[in-house]
Each structure stands twice: as structure tokens, then as C-alpha cells.
Amino acid sequence: MDSGASTARYEVADIMRGIYGDGIIACRGAFSRELIGELRADIDMLFEEALAREGGALNRGPNRYYVEVHPERLRSFVTIASHPWVRAVCSAVLGPEWRFVEVGFDVPGPGAMHQPWHRDFASPPETVQGRRLSSLAFNITTVDVTEEMGPFEIAPGTQWDLYDGDPMFPDKALYPRYEALAQRKLPKVGDISARSALTIHRGTANHANVSRPVLVIGADAPDATNAIKHDLQLSRAYFDGLPEEVRRHLNCRVVEQLVPIQQAHTIEGLKMGVTMGG
Asked: How far apart are CA 243 and CA 88, in angstroms?
């Protein structure tokens, strides 16, 4: 059980209030700038590798990509996965048997356009019928985000929205609701956020001349099914050397030799950006 003194300082009520209310919470200054600098260097290297490999980077709109990675290629993975706030949030929202199911990064480059409002997958039965959230997405910025960089924009409270049509992309008739609620997030290096991926959100247009890479880590409750869209792999040597508190919370394949990830989490509706807020 993740109930030690290291997580006790984070109140379950505060976590639940944020995730079940706004749908997003954050821990400011969770990591050092040095650690995030190392993370950025690893992401830059892995992004170059992904672009050079067929199917290595998923297109999420003009000059916007998503890449799933092997955790052991990130030198900071264990530190991030072991952070008391991360463990406390997962335990509070997903229960003691939560699991990491996804590790990757988004890269909105210069010229990336507004995405349409969306959620990352269809609301599952436990949310629609049971009003329970069974997954979380953690985001860690690798830059101090400014308005020009195309910040992440979210419509708080919309993780509970039900609408007809496409289960991920609400009809444009609903856009005024989301734009009235919208909050742009401007995290600094060292910050980490946790959100329900069902909360309606979008990436905005990047007008800067630099990219805005962000690490993404997904976690599921035992009855969630997001792991089937991912291929989290760890080599036997790396897996065996992990701290038990990290190892027991991984939904992964343990392999003798890592192989390229066959990325299945495509979101077709994001391949075309939009030029304006709608």
C-alpha cells in the first residue's frame, strides 16, 4: 500500500476535490530544473530517433507530434514515478492497485495550430454510469510556458459532460461552453500536473519559434482498459533493478530486448488543426 509518511502530507480530500471538480490539479516545483534539463535532453534525442523511424512519431496536427517511449530511455523516470505527489494522487483517485500504462511526450513545434476541443478517449461505463474516474494523465513541461508557445487549454469540470455524436470530439455547437470555461495553463520547469483525460481540452497555436515538449505519463485503475492502446516495455535487467514501489505499479511487458513501440493511440480527429479558436 502506498500509505507511508512520504505521501501523508497530501490530503486525499484536496486531490479528489480537484480531480473530480475542475478535472486538473498541479504540484508546483516538484522537480529541480537540473532534472528537467536532463529530461529535455532525453526527449530531444528520442524525438530525433522517432522522426527517423517509420511510424515512430504520431501526427497530432500540423507540426505537432506524440511519441511513446520506453521508460528506461528516460534517465529521470524512476525519480518521477517515485515522487510522493504522483503516488498520492494515483492512490487517492485510482485506488491502491493503480498502474502506469503509458509513457510518452507531446511536441507542439513552431507553427502548430489550434486543436479542436476534445477528450483523449471515450468516457468509459464506470464514468458515464458510475460517476467514477478510472484513469489519470500526468504532464511535465520541459520549458517555462508562455502565451506564445501554444499553451494547453482546458475547460474545467467537463470530464462529466455527455453529448451525442463522436465520443471524443464534441459538436462545434458546444464550443461556446468550453471557451467560456477555458483556462490556459502556463506551467514552469519543475511543475507537474494531473488531470482526467476526459476533461475537454486542446493545444493552442504555437506562435513562438521554439517547441514546447511535455512528458505524458498515464495511469489506470485496475478495471480501466487504456493499457491495450499502449505497449509499455521494460527490459528484464531494468525491470529487476527498479525499486519495488515503482515495479509493482507498472502494467508492462518485460522483454529480453526492447523493440520499437507499435503505437496504437492514434487520434484521427487531431491530424488537421484549426486556424481560430473554434
From this structure: 17
SS3 at position 168: coil
Give the start-end residues of each E strand in 200-265: 201-203, 214-220, 233-235, 253-255
Long-range contacts of 50-58 (CB under 8 A, 24+ apart): 53/260, 55/262, 55/263, 56/260, 56/263, 57/107, 58/263, 58/265, 58/266
Ordered by start, the domain boundaries in the chain are: 18-269
One DSSP character per residue, 123-135 reads: PPHHHHTT----E
Give per-residue pLDDT as tens, 126-172. 999 999 999 999 999 999 999 999 999 999 999 999 999 999 999 99
Place of cell 480501466: 224
How far apart CA 222 and CA 262 sit, in angstroms, is: 23
Q: Which residues lie closer than 8 Å to 172 by C-beta, 6 or more apart?
A: 278
Angle (deg, nearest 10), helices 84-94 and 12-20:
70
Rounded Cα distance, 41 and 75, in Å? 10
> What tens digit of pLDDT does each residue of 207-263 get?
999 999 999 999 999 999 999 889 999 999 999 999 999 999 999 999 999 998 866
| Main-chain dihedrals φ then ψ at residue 79, nearest 5 degrees | -60, -45
The C-alpha cell at 191 is: 511543475
The answer to whether the CB of 125 falls within 8 A of the CB of 251 is no
Element (H, E) at 138: strand 135-141
Nearest to 83 by CA among 33, 133, 27: 27
pLDDT digits (tens, 9 = 90+) for 183-195: 999 999 999 999 9
Burial of residue 84, with CB atoms counted within 10 A of its CB: 0-12 exposed, 13-18 middle, 19 or more buried: middle
Query: What spatial distance separates the first Cα and last Cα of the chain, rounded to whole Å?
Result: 45
- The CATH class of 18-269 is mainly beta
